[in-house]
Amino acid sequence: MELLSGLPESIRHEQIDFLSSKTVRNVISNGTLKAEKIHDRQVIGENLETLLKRWLDEGDEQCAFYLGQIYFEKEKYNEAWNYFRMGYEKFNDQKSKFQLGIMLYDNLVSKDVTKVSNPQAKACEFFKEIMTLDVQIASPVDQRNLVFSAAFNLGRAYYQGYGVCSSTEDALRCFLFAANNGDSKACISAQTALGYLYSGPEICDLQKAFQWHSDACGNGSVESQAVLGVMYLYGIGVKEDWDNALFCLSEASARGSLYAKANLIYFYYRRKMFTNVCYLASRMVTCDNFMTSECIQTFQCRAMSMACFLYALCLKSGKGVQKDELLANQLFSKVCTFTSRIVLHSYNWFVYLTVIVSSSYCYNFSSFSQIGQELNVLKNKINSLHFVSFNFLNAFH
């Protein structure tokens, strides 16, 4: 499915509390470190590695993981691997095992160091073993979060077919397990992934897709909030509701979602609020660091393509802004640049459409009749699963 394929092919470590970049804070607050060892936090911050190595020599089992995490964050992967391996093999630390799986899956360490011939398969084996840990209410929170993170990562591996045989059924099983209670980032990510999975051709249950995105949104997922806005806007899996669409898109946009902002721009375009269109789009098209967000990169490129396209339409016709055909043509060309970064699947119809229409404007075609053949081909690709209805075309006549 195109939506889930937008997720990174490599599995990055989840920034749940005990794997966050706040290693110093975690070491200081960790209950396994005796209070009398901590005299001055600044001194500890400046001499953390030395202190951790000393405490490790004194038998503090947690220090192997924290040393591995420090080197991991410094991108000293060979050193990180050695400490994570020590934490897992010597102390049976499951957090270290999880990080070993991450490093194997992402090929962060050479096979000469790991001595593993198929690192992705070994990583998935680690994730499967972690999933067998207890996740009952009485279990430690760290352990529960670890299990759900492993399940989410394994679900992506099953869907993408890396390290395991591709299986939508197994991916669904892992995502459902990870989405158990929504009390960690991995659970919320799994709920969002389920929303995408249920909206695809493999399963095709838009009502369930809407429900999972609603759950993820309620737990704080900005990505699902943006998708809900689009579903409300076009009546996908739910009755069309422009009030809810405006609310979801505005909120997600304010929280940093470019995909939501692009669809909010289109919402204003449909309402003929061209001043709002130009105000938002003009700021969005000049954004240089849009790929730094955690959101799916495919959606980021699509969002920039939409913003450039709609702003160019306003510039070309002088709606909401002073007419500027030169800048409009530059933006139409920019649309093609952004869309070239996106793999064209049958469900990427909006991207395909913007390429066709933008090209027609660049070459001064006077109407859609000259590209009718392309649009007829495109129509055959459209079904109820798309997050943008074909009524989008009506805005340009």
TrEMBL record:
Domain of life: Eukaryota
Gene Ontology CC annotations of this record: cytoplasm
Pfam families: Sel1
Statement: the UniProt record of this protein carries the keyword Zinc: no
Alphabetic keyword roster: Cytoplasm, Repeat, TPR repeat
Chief site of localization: cytoplasm
Subcellular location(s) of the protein: Cytoplasm
Function text: May act as an adapter that regulates LRP2 function.
Protein name: LRP2-binding protein
